[in-house]
Amino acid sequence: MELNVLLYKLLLLSLFWVSASATNSSLSINFYATSCPTAELMVKNTVKSASESDPKIPGRLLRLLFHDCMVEGCDGSVLLEGNGTERTDPANGSLGGFAVVESAKKLLEFFCPETVSCADILALAARDAVVFAGGPMIQIPTGRRDGKVSSASNVRGNIIDTNFGLDEMVQIFSSKGLSLDDLVILSGAHTIGSAHCNTIRDRFQVDPKGNMTLIDTSLDKMYALKLLKQCPVGGSASITINNDPETSFKFDNQYYKNLVSHQGLFQSDSVLFSDERTKTKVVELSNSQDSFFQNWTSSFVKLTSMGVKTDNEGEIRRLCQSLNG
Questions:
Q1: Which residue range(s) make up the domain with 94?
Q2: Does 161 show up as a binding residue in the annotation?
Q3: Where on this chain does Ca(2+) 1 bind (predicted)?
Q4: Can you give the pLDDT at residue 130?
Q5: Is 146 annotated as belonging to a binding site?
Q6: Does 191 carry a binding-site annotation?
Q7: Which residue, among 175, 182, 137, 181, has the nearest Cα to 159 in the 3D structure?
Q8: What is the CB neighbour count within 10 angstroms for residue 261?
């Protein structure tokens, strides 16, 4: 009898250690509750101030997060500067929002030195950016550590290009553990933000007389003419256009309404409505902003949890743009 009791206690003890180990090796809600209780508030206030000064900040932070998480996981590797880093690849040349992350990091290093990772700051900043643009508030787990690897050669095979078809996008998303629905839902990030004109020039062509011909016939012709006015042939490469022509700085489900109206800015947007595999989901989200917000909450948590470093992996950088010396 005493032996059975002893074995039972040993079993409980072993289960406790397994449970504790699993908890320590994963992200958790309020990870900084003891080590830096105001961490999330400091990030939130930094994003709020930046967004009030520049309404383009939310879109930039959200895009920055995507480009971080899709390469090496959500580990802040896109923030590193230097020869051959992810930031040097042309696909990342137009990224913005770095200064906001650095501002939050500087503040956190003053109050909680070497405690809050740049990867967590970026994930929280993108989360808060969506809120300040009118989107849903999401509680996300924290505890990410910063990666030590950032290579430009890893970028192209992991980033969605604006001229991709559905199969190409599905291949990349599925390799990250993201579903077809996640692809449609997370593409809704294009409800805010902007793009350079060269990303859409292959959707139509203009003859010497100025007459336009649609190359991508899924594009609404009147919308294409508006795009042509904003992005004239021979115009400056620095000209940008809003992803969503209707509610440019508001995080809402207008993106999906645009797709149904054949007014997706990119080919990678338009294909979501033209392909039967994703069309039903697009229509559902176009009809209900509540449905979009509910779906976004789930998919965003999945996105920000991809390939994270925890425990003894990586480091907590003192500066987001450089590894600890």
A1: 39-154
A2: no
A3: 68, 71, 73, 75, 77, 86
A4: 98
A5: no
A6: yes
A7: 175
A8: 14
pLDDT tens digits along 273-294: 999 999 999 999 999 999 999 9
Known catalytic residue at 196: no
Q: Has residue 48 been placed in a domain?
A: yes
DSSP state of 212: E
Residue 260 half-sphere exposure toward CB, CA atoms < 13 A: 13
Separation of alpha carbons 271 and 299, rounded Å: 20
For residue 41, give Cα distances in angstroms to 35, 38, 115, 144. Answer: 14, 5, 15, 17
- Mean pLDDT, 10 residues at a time, the chain of 325 residues: 40 35 64 97 98 97 98 97 97 96 98 98 98 97 98 96 95 97 98 93 82 87 91 82 95 98 96 98 98 98 96 96 94
Pairing of the two strands 194-196 and 240-242: antiparallel
Active-site residue identified among 63, 67, 144, 257: 67
- Residue at a domain's end among 154, 179, 199: 154
DSSP state of 210: -
Has residue 248 been placed in a domain? yes
Do residues 109 and 277 make contact, with C-beta atoms less than 8 angstroms apart? no
**Angle of the 98-111 helix axis to the 57-69 helix axis, nearest 10:** 80
Q: Strands, DSSP E only, in the chain? A: 194-196, 204-206, 212-214, 240-242
**For the chain, how many structural domains are there in total?**
2
Q: Is 310 exposed, middle or buried (0-12, 13-18, 19+ CB in 10 A)?
A: middle
Residues 219, 178 share a domain: yes
pTM of the model: 0.90
Count CB atoms within 10 A of the CB of residue 220.
16
- Residue 303's identity, in one-letter code, is L
One domain, residues 206 and 248: yes
305 in a structural domain: no
103 annotated as a binding-site residue: no
The answer to whether residues 116 and 206 belong to one domain is no
**Domain containing residue 120: CATH number:** 1.10.520.10
Provide the 8-state DSSP code for 256: H
68 is in an annotated binding site: yes
The answer on whether 86 is annotated among ligand-binding residues is: yes
**Is 252 part of any known ligand binding site?**
yes
210 and 140 fall within a common domain: no
